[in-house]
Amino acid sequence: MDRRSALILWFDDITIDDVPLVGGKNASLGEMVRELGPKGVRVPGGFAVTARAYRRLLEHNQAEEKIKDILKDLDTSDMDNLARRGRKVRALIRSLAFPDDLRAAVEESYAKLEKRYGAGCDVAVRSSATAEDLPDASFAGQQETYLNIHGVEELIEACQRCFASLFTNRAISYRVDKGFDHFAIALSIGVQKMVRSDLACAGVMFSIDTESGFRDAVYITGAWGLGENVVQGAVSPDEYYVFKPTLKAGFKPVLMRKAGEKAIKMIYTDDAKSPTKNVDVILPDRLRLVASDAEVLELARMAVVIEDHYSAKAGRHRPMDIEWAKDGLTGELFIVQARPETVHSMKDARVLRKFVLTGTGEAIAKGKAVGEMIGRGPAHVIKEAANIKEFRKGCVLVTDMTDPDWEPIMKIASAIVTNRGGRTCHAAIVSRELGIPCVVGTGSGTEKVVPGENITVDCSRGSEGLVYRGLVDFRVEELNLDEVPRPKTKITMNLAAPEQAFEKSFIPSDGVGLAREEFIISAYIRIHPLALLRFEQLADTAVKKVIQEMTSGYEDKAQYFVDKLAEGLGMIAAAFHPKPVIARLSDFKSNEYANLIGGAQFEPREENPMIGWRGASRYYSEAYREAFALECRAIRKVRDEMGLANLEVMIPFPRTVEEARKVIETMADYGLRQGENGLRVIGMCEIPSNVIMAEEFLEVFDGFSIGTNDLTQLILGVDRDSELVAHVYDERNPAVKKMVRQVIEVANAKGKYIGICGQAPSDYPEFAEFIVECGIQSMSLNPDTVIKTTLAVAELEKRLGR
Fold it and tell me: Any idea which residues carry the catalytic annotation?
């Protein structure tokens, strides 16, 4: 039989080359069943009702001319006109009589599924258009999907509704915009055994970071129940990142886990007219992650296999957008869809485009940022889908959540703000493709934004998106990365926020010279480590209650500290892998430690915390060393479990050579051994004794990183926090420069690493020039000064004949 005339094709008989016969979704499912099943990618079985079957239905009922007649005065810019035309075409197709041969083919195929899975087996009925999921043309959910369909009659009806959905309003509008002929495209249908994720969980994953375009991470989202809620943005899902290079090498690099609210879940019903429904999720399950580490890693491995396969076929990197589901009966994980990612795969990675907010405004709402852009305009708050026809071009769409019916107005919006949804929901996916900023999951954006007022939607500052009142000024900067020279002096960056790491990794650099643990502890952990270790001994019952809530799911409270610190450091180390990332061990002062939750019970009151119990002196102290052990465990987890051996360690504020040795010995006691698996231990050079005894310190440390902030303070005897003597504080003071030159010369003579991570070279170009002339090997800068300092250093080296 000629496959082109077949009304049914089983997934086992389909390849990716069959898009003209079965559409993009089905072609991909068949490709995975045939080619990737042996490699561990599980795809539920099923068959495709072909594009030929759709055309057979139209021919049998002589429907094409009737459809053309309905669409003859179509105007997609007129929402009423579009809605009327679409409604008439869909009603026509749903009324068409199935030809006998098509009905018989569907009945026979479903009977085969029943033999395999049981009588009346539940199936998903998914639309698969012959022009969907192309690399440059793929909207989320162009046509319809129907879940929990049982029996032949329900299946025939679902097929008829799928065929009609080729003419949803958004699909008609999209084809007109993309220049596709309505009749050059046909609809195939995938009939696939349901995965019982209504009894477990499901979600969406990308083989690339959806916001930054970072290629080496798999981004996974998931929620309880059927996956439609994640796709549609009806819930804020759990989020996970997995690092692909070390995953392939056999490590377990779950970089990040973040619980979403997951307030509702979609489950089965016994009602054929409404086969699914949403129910509330009980509080303990809302707080609990839907997937274990083992499951997250298994999903990531399948994502990597799928991406590698499609990349090989395309002859270039092909990131993928994948839907997954867990069967609550068997515990198995399945892939139910895979399509090309259509945003970052089309970008020119050589051009760095940056939006910079230059004005200020009142922040009225916040949520998850989608993209890295800024948009603004009058706010159009729409609470009901029936009112979308009122939307006007250039406005900011503010709504509860979007679905594919909203696409005709989304494409004319300057930005989008939603109450609900995560970074893989419908609004997020579509806004990325459209190239407009979107803030999802604000909770109450529709209440906080006044209809008609001018607002600015800012997604330029990392993972948090902000909505400002008024039209806040911004600028757009573009840089061709091919034009940035690489000087002999290593240029690294100072980085604190893990959520910025993927984005900042695109800035040309030689790694991270200072990753601050303090930010991760204060922003993500927030609890004093001793309060976790001695939880039962806490005197304050209110504090105990807060810690109990924050560490929900952790029987071992201390493990919470280890995991969260490892995730923060792991994100940074992965972003710059295999370049070195130097993590400075915690350097809070005692008053700052006391401000952590539960910290007041464990911290002394010091007259001058700036030069008190901080840095190295804490780590080997009997009063703190068990807390320091948690830091060592976190770093070991990053290096040994995640496989990120590019993470190195820096010791802050080592006052004496003996103290430096004690810290090295204490680290070893907790399994973090200098030199093991290439571990370098760098000392901070920020006390005059470090310079005076540089040769002796460098017998202990593998190098020095100069901290100009504290070094200047201690050389000049100035409290840098005091406004009264602030005019004296200056890193360019001759005494400071003399000591900086001295330690650079000693380190270079001993063949040891010497870098600088203090603020001075970021703030003062002339200081950067000075240390280059002294022979500094590496300077670590604030991210926003890396490019301009790189250009200046390259020019200086040229003048110096290097």
Answer: 426, 757
CA distance 478 to 331: 48
Alpha helices in 701-785 (DSSP H): 708-716, 734-750, 760-763, 765-774
The structure's pTM equals 0.86
| Tokens linked to 338 | 């895979």
pLDDT band at 312 (very low <50, low <70, confident <90, very high): very high
DSSP character for 101? H
CA angle (438 as vertex; 437, 442 as ends), nearest 5? 145
Burial (CB count <10 Å: 0-12, 13-18, 19+), residue 100: exposed
Spacing of C-alpha 520 from chain mean position: 17
652: preceding bond cis by omega (within 30 degrees) = no
| Spatial contact of 57 and 162, defined as CB atoms under 8 Å apart | no
Phi and psi for 703 in degrees, rounded to 5?
165, 180
- Residue 578: asked if its preceding bond is cis (omega within 30°), the reply is yes
Residue 133's pLDDT is 45
Look at the block and give the residue holding tokens 């459809």: 67
Higher pLDDT, 530 or 132: 530
Mean pLDDT value of segment 775-802: 89
Cα 538 to Cα 544: distance, rounded to the nearest angstrom: 7
Give the best-scoring range by mean pLDDT among 264-278, 544-558, 655-669, 723-737: 655-669
**HSE-up (13 A, CA, CB side) for residue 556:** 6
Vertex 405, ends 402 and 410: CA angle to 5°?
60
- Cα 499 to Cα 466: distance, rounded to the nearest angstrom: 15
Secondary structure class of 364 (helix, strand, coil): strand
Rounded Cα gap, residues 98 and 58, in angstroms? 9
Beta carbons within 8 Å of 329's beta carbon, 6+ residues apart: 196, 199
Count CB atoms within 10 A of the CB of residue 137. Answer: 18
Neighbouring-strand partners of residue 322:
205, 338
Instruction: State the helix-helix crossing angle for 151-164 and 79-95, rounded to 10 degrees.
Output: 150
- Which helix (H) or strand (E) segment holds residue 416: the answer is strand 415-418
Q: Is 740 within 8 Å of 706 (Cβ atoms)? A: yes
From 267, 268, 208, 264, select the one nearest 424 (Cα to Cα).
Answer: 208
Instruction: Give the domain ranges of the chain.
Output: 3-194, 198-346, 353-480, 484-799
- Is residue 547 over pLDDT 90? yes
Q: Is 607 exposed, middle or buried (0-12, 13-18, 19+ CB in 10 A)?
A: exposed
pLDDT band at 135 (very low <50, low <70, confident <90, very high): very low
CATH for the stretch 198-346:
3.30.470.20
CATH number at 3-194: 3.30.1490.20
For residue 346, the model assigns a pLDDT of: 62
Given this model, what pLDDT does residue 479 score? 78
Contact 619, 650 (CB under 8 A): no
- CATH fold, domain 353-480, is Glucose Oxidase; domain 1 (3.50.30)
Task: Assign domain 484-799 to its CATH superfamily.
Answer: Phosphoenolpyruvate-binding domains (3.20.20.60)
